[in-house]
Amino acid sequence: MFATESSDVKNTSHLCKKICIALLSLFLIVGAYTWFFIANIGYTQPEFSITGAYLNRFDNYTEINHTLSYSLVLNITLTNPNKKVDFELSDTQVIAYYQNERFGLVTLIDRWKSIHQYPKNTTIFQNALIQGRKPLLYEEHVLPNVTHHYRIDVVIAFHDKIQQLFAEVTCNLTVPLNFNVTSCDGFNTTKCSYIQFKLEHDLAPKN
């Protein structure tokens, strides 16, 4: 009689423990999901635009190795469109491509530094310069279109420390060639669009 009652008590206690563990797990899952949802509600990614751009050199007169000499100047605008969410950007680079081939880059924000972007605030990077020389794979001369403009793609890669994400945007530009002139005349402001977005935990090695 007593042995049966003792066994029933143990079974009941074991069942209660299982129910408590299940309820606690459910509470933690719901709590984590709720926290993530509330923390990111209304979140909009940083907005990049190229407000000015011009080339004062872009040629490959060296026919043997097809070396490109380039000098590209960019005015870049970074905007935080959120009402309550801050950004803290670091490790930000601007990479330029011509005919799908990378030819140069410039670092806007060093990986050891950062820029804090408050809600509804804008930062302007004036006269970001991409210049140098680079051998190209294609054999044709680099030629502008009939209006002396080049089609150049710019990719901006950045790290947001607060939101713990890495992202890239692309800006498809039509850039005027102005020899010995420091002017963005003839360039239309271009808004960049997202091509890649990864959270930091997505990049962690998996066992």
TrEMBL record:
Localization (cell): Membrane
Main location: membrane
InterPro entries, sorted: NDR1-like
Keywords noted in UniProt: Membrane, Transmembrane, Transmembrane helix
Transmembrane segments: 21-43
Any one biological process term the GO annotation gives: defense response to other organism
Gene Ontology, cellular component aspect: plasma membrane; plasmodesma
Protein name, as recorded: Late embryogenesis abundant protein LEA-2 subgroup domain-containing protein
Protein species of origin: Prunus dulcis (Almond)
